[in-house]
Amino acid sequence: MKKVLVVFGTRPEAIKMCPVIKQMNTHKDMECKVCITAQHREMLDQVLEIFNVKADYDLNIMQPGQTLTGITIEILNKFNEILEKENPDIVLVHGDTTTSFAAALSSFYHNISVAHVEAGLRTYNMHSPYPEEFNRQAVDLISELYFAPTKMSADNLIKEGKDEKKIFITGNTVIDALHTTVTDDFVDENLRWAYGSRLILFTAHRRENLGNSMVGMFEAIKKIANEYRNVKVIYPVHKNPKIRDLAHKMLSDAENIRLIEPLNPLVFHNYINRSYLILTDSGGIQEEAPSLGKPVLVMRDTTERPEGIEAGTLKLVGTDSDNIYTETKLLLDNDFVYRNMSNAVNPYGDGKASERICSILAEYFKKQ
Ligand code: UD1
Ligand code: UDP
Hints:
16 helices, 6-stranded parallel β-sheet, 2 domains
């Protein structure tokens, strides 16, 4: 029996790895062990609960105000022991977080193969997103198998000279997750509050946006909320205290903006489905919203998800306050522009990415 050790630590990794774990548990010839680093705590736990996934190991590393160095050191120290105890045939990591980087590095030091889910995304700008661009490139340097979500991401890997035989286009497992969460009859108190208005869903959390850029984003949304009384804004605020303090200081007195706690993905995906438009600096939301036909203004200067830009549902608006305000206004005022951006397109596959990943792993093990 071959053993796969799946490791992740933050909310987005969990949302995209739970479908893979569930699929792997249906394979009789593969044993799946799950290790969470808990780089995030509450935001991770609420995902595990909703997908009913239990971890075999919990490194429980999260600290308030944690630094990149601190996260990396903690994981290198603690994951080491798990690798020695379990000695897996392969370690599965996801995306671009410091958890993924440190777990991959630790596996490399133990001569244990790494498979990378969501491989090949690139901006080729080491500072945007920071430190994620480094993390994902570093993981791809040492991976044995690359699960690229799209042809574009696979092409990046090929251009970098990675072995084509190790690259597989699988689709993105976030679509697998979306297929289990969105329902047309979903309703709750926040959606009742927004009923009859145009709902803007807002999120912001990127490390490189902390400080002035985030102030600018908040100023822009506040101006929009003041000007458009038929708009309601829901902003589930990230648990990072630096973000929470600023968000509450700047936005809590606006009566058509609701600052709420992070939502579990089942609820959040249904909010996407009911929103008029989305303002975000998130990566994952750029993948989810196009398939639900929701325009996304991406408050970043770069994106590693050009598929949505090409499809027309995403627009990069940077972090300048005036620009975010102007672009949001355009979408609210101009029906033609709005309709052009709200075509449902899904560049990220058919919801069977997890199935493909598990079949590829099974084939890989047969050849070992
Ligand atoms: C991390 C990832 C980022 C990803 C994001 C998803 C890195 C370097 N960054 O960034 O790629 O987009 O997660 O949200 O890996 N906190 C809590 N409770 C939680 C979660 C976070 O209190 O459940 C607070 C802690 O004080 C923590 C801070 O948030 O110190 C920041 O968390 P951290 O994981 O360092 O960075 P993120 O910005 O969340
Ligand atoms: N998400 C969630 N609850 C929220 C906000 C976001 O479940 O309150 C989900 C969202 O649907 C997406 C993922 O979290 O799947 C994105 O995570 P985040 O924006 O924190 O990180 P990124 O994708 O930028 O790494």
